[in-house]
């Protein structure tokens, strides 16, 4: 049973790690998400850079071609026309929407020719900025709220330096379209990352589902159904199938060990109870004929008789639990009026304990129970209440209803049970106070038997206690078959 408890705790910890940074699911999802973000981000950045380079190359090549052949075209026109007219003709010939060209003298003081749309396209400040920033090779520059490709080249006619030509290509529209495309690409990448992460997380969760199935089985399994508990994985990975097979083999070994333990406890209890009962009988007979014995001998016989009776009770408790574990505990269920049964048990307990036991019932309550087993349960609970409360404090039995079911409460005003022990008092051989339990003759099996009997009648038992004030054991029993 300790091995089962350890396995349950391990699986429970695995289950809790689904949203834990140290869990397998979280780590796999985070690592894949990181790789996905890095991969898509790299592709998006490279694509944006490449698109920018293509845009620049496309426009700069045209501007560079214009700058390269400008001197030749001017020289051709100047053979037939005056130089100033040839310059203007050359500019008009290559001018297109968004392209502005102007020519200045070598000292950059005199404007020789310019495009028709230059004055409307650029302000004086922008013209000064353009002239100051003109590179020898075409480059893209942001000017105000626009993007321009700027270039400067020399104009030579018949081997003589005539001046310098300045070219400005407006690529604002194309640049903005590129920015919009890059933004759309970024949005698509983000959506792709989110959708892929969701798909990956669901896939990882589905792949780890067999572990959750093992966790649920480990949480629901009990000693009674160890031989029937099997984990079947049909579509799981081979590693998880192997783990499931090992899990099933472990359950099979635990089932065999549990069955051997139950059989051993049952056999030992049965074999030892009879000879010890005989020993108790002989000791009691000796005590009745102890007229010629010394006080020391009488005390020794009384101690031996008491310990032998205590051992017989222990063996009887073990035998009852073994029968319940093996399914040999039979219940004769019938409809019983709890008011009468509780009053009968209270009267019996008062005679043997010499304590006042109060019975409270506002109405007649019926329940479907085994009369003898319920008496045994109440006697055990009353015995505990008497042992762990002061002599002048009453023990109360309250009969009522709760949620359409019958209810019996056993209340005492004794020492109470610490909170950390309340969840374990129904475990076998568990005792809150070891020294006090020995002095009162307890073995830690009484409440375990009570719980087994109550659950065998399809009921439940719970405990509420305030240390130093009171303890309440509440039985909830069915009212129908």
Shape: rod-shaped
What would you give as the CATH superfamily of the largest domain? Answer: PAS domain
Structural class: alpha+beta
For the record, give the distance between the C-alpha atoms at the N and C termini, rounded to a whole number: 32 Å
Largest sheet: 5 strands, antiparallel
Helix-residue proportion: 55-70%
Q: List the secondary-structure elements in sequence, H or E.
A: HHHEEHHEEEHHHHEHEEHEEHHHEE
CATH architecture of the largest domain: 2-Layer Sandwich
Quaternary organisation: single chain
Query: Count of DSSP E strands?
Result: 12
List segments where confidence is low: pLDDT < 50 over at least 5 consecutive residues. 435-439
Strand order of the largest sheet: 2-1-5-4-3
Number of domains: 3
What's the total helix number?
14
User: How is the CATH topology of the largest domain named?
Assistant: Beta-Lactamase
Mean pLDDT: 77
Radius of gyration using CA atoms only: 49 Å
- What's the CATH C level of the largest domain? Alpha Beta
Summarize the structure.
With 481 residues, the chain is of the alpha+beta class.
Overall description:
It is a single chain. The protein is α+β, with helices and mostly antiparallel strands. The protein folds into three domains: about 15-205, PAS domain (Beta-Lactamase), CATH 3.30.450.20; about 240-325, Orthogonal Bundle (Helix Hairpins); about 335-475, Histidine kinase-like ATPase, C-terminal domain (Heat Shock Protein 90). About 60% of the residues lie in helices and about 20% in strands. The protein has helices spanning about 1-15, 25-80, 85-95, 120, 125-135, 170-205, 210-220, 240-290, 295-325, 340-355, 370-385, 420, 435-440, 445-455; strands at about 100-105, 110-115, 140-145, 145-155, 160-170, 335, 355-360, 365-370, 395-400, 405-410, 460-465, 470-475. The strands form three sheets. Strands 2-1-5-4-3 form a five-stranded antiparallel sheet. It has a five-stranded mixed sheet with strand order 7-9-10-12-11, covered by helices on one side. Strands 6-8 form a two-stranded antiparallel sheet. Helix 1 runs antiparallel to helix 7 (about 210-220) and helix 11 (about 370-385) packs antiparallel against helix 14. The radius of gyration is 49 Å and the shape is rod-shaped. Mean pLDDT is about 75; it is low at about 435-440.
